[in-house]
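User: Here's a structure from my thesis project, written as structure tokens. My advisor, Dr. K., wants to see whether a designed sequence matches the one we expressed. Can you design one independently, without my sequence as a hint?
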């Protein structure tokens, strides 16, 4: 979103590509561009130190609570620190989901966009539910699958809300199109057979995670 006409997109040629440049004089402190990610999430490892809104990623809680987390304080000390003034904390009401938001507005937006399909409350605490297994295995293997799930859920939610499939998928259509296992760096000098052997575990992992996510969202395996 451009709140002003102060910037424009300029093509710098094949070597450098396109970029954003000033279209006029810019005042100090002026907002030139507000960029919203198509999909985003907080790293699991980062959550133990900083608590952020699951939708907009604004920091929530108090500075004292954040400092206590980073210092490895006890739960009782964390609870005492949380009572100090800070940004509000809104929890997803569907146990055992633990998603946190900075406002009721962000919670509702996340629910409408993707969380209603990915909320662990749908599992009713069943560790064998496909969604529970998907989340656990994503955290153990590669949490990029959790981000991919938000993309899939966003498309599904938009489609279920009445948007045509092409329109629902359009925001993500310009993202990188090659399969994950084809862009993973491998050592130089491998034969084609060795390349396939190196990629095979990643292909198998993607196929399993796709199956789990499809079962979690629809109760059916993915279409081939």
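Assistant: Designed independently from the structure alone:
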């Amino acid at each position: 979103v451009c709140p002003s006409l102060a910037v424009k997109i300029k093509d710098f040629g094949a070597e450098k590509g396109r970029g954003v440049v000033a279209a006029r004089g810019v005042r100090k402190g002026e907002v030139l561009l507000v960029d919203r990610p198509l999909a985003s999430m907080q790293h699991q490892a980062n959550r133990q130190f900083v608590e952020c809104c699951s939708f907009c990623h604004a920091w929530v809680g108090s500075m004292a609570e954040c400092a206590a987390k980073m210092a490895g304080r006890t739960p009782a000390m964390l609870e005492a620190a949380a009572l100090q003034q800070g940004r509000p904390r809104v929890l997803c009401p569907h146990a055992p989901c633990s998603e946190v938001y900075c406002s009721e507005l962000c919670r509702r937006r996340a629910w409408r966009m993707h969380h209603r399909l990915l909320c662990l409350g749908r599992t009713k605490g069943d560790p064998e539910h496909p969604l529970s297994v998907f989340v656990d295995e994503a955290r153990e293997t590669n949490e990029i699958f959790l981000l991919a799930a938000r993309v899939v859920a966003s498309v599904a939610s938009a489609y279920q809300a009445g948007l045509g499939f092409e329109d629902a998928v359009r925001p993500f259509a310009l993202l990188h199109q090659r399969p994950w296992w084809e862009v993973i760096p491998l050592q130089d000098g491998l034969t084609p057979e060795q390349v396939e052997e190196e990629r095979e575990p990643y292909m198998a992992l993607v196929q399993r995670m796709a199956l789990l996510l499809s079962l979690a969202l629809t109760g059916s395996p993915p279409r081939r």
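When you compare it with your expressed construct, this may help: Residues 192-218 form the longest helix (27 residues).
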